[in-house]
Design brief:
Elements (H helix, E strand, L loop, with lengths): L1 H13 L7 E2 L5 E3 L5 E3 L2 E5 L2 E11 L4 H24 L10 E9 L2 H4 L20 H14 L5 E7 L1 H5 L12 H13 L3
Parallel strand pairs: 5-6, 6-7
Antiparallel strand pairs: 1-4, 2-3, 4-5
């Protein structure tokens, strides 16, 4: 995931923001509302103004079920914590920052196999019935943006061998890295 974080940092520099304001290896903590701090994967902070916070996560098998629940709860909690801290002016007079979420899933038989759902009391939403973890993560990333928890999300997949060579696929056009990058650059253009 470091390669993507570095790509985003390079794009931000090309958009006119000095590398001095981009944090990707250290000083990645932001204060929260429900917890003292949260460490992000990439931050842009210029003159005490939070411009960008990006989270980059990945998952490989074999335990897709437990990890899916953990990853979704983590991403939703991080967004809620940041936006509540923002509402409470924790980031001083910062304008609304770009909040980005990048997720990469291992492309393998277990991540593409339909997953059974349990419905002892109420029916599960139809998009989850018979959906694989690949499809569930795609839905999740899309809903993070639809519900305005994140400004943009990207969802990619890779085999273990492909990942080592830097090869990846984009299961959904609306969750492409390129679209994520364009949204990030559009946000940065307002801070020239």
């Amino acid at each position: 995931m470091d390669g993507f974080v570095n790509l985003f940092a390079d794009l931000i520099v090309k958009a006119g923001i000095s590398a001095d304001f981009i944090f990707r290896n250290q000083a990645l903590e932001l204060p929260g509302y429900f917890r003292p701090t949260k460490e992000w994967d990439l931050l842009v902070v210029r003159d005490q103004t939070l411009l960008v916070a990006i989270e980059a996560k990945s998952q490989v098998g074999p335990s897709f079920g437990n990890n899916f629940n953990n990853r979704t709860e983590e991403a939703m909690g991080s967004a809620l914590d940041l936006w509540t801290a923002y509402r409470e002016r924790t980031f001083l007079d910062s304008p609304q920052p770009f909040l980005g979420y990048l997720f990469m899933l291992e492309d393998c038989p277990a991540s593409n196999r339909p997953v059974r759902v349990r419905e002892p009391h109420f029916p599960v939403r139809p998009e989850y019935v018979g959906a694989s973890y690949m499809q569930r993560y795609e839905q999740f990333c899309r809903k993070l943006v639809l519900e305005r928890q994140y400004t943009a999300a990207a969802f990619i997949s890779s085999t273990q061998q492909g990942g080592k060579r830097g090869c990846y696929a984009t299961p959904a056009k609306d969750l492409q890295i390129e679209r994520f990058a364009k949204s990030l650059l559009a946000h940065m253009a307002s801070f020239d």
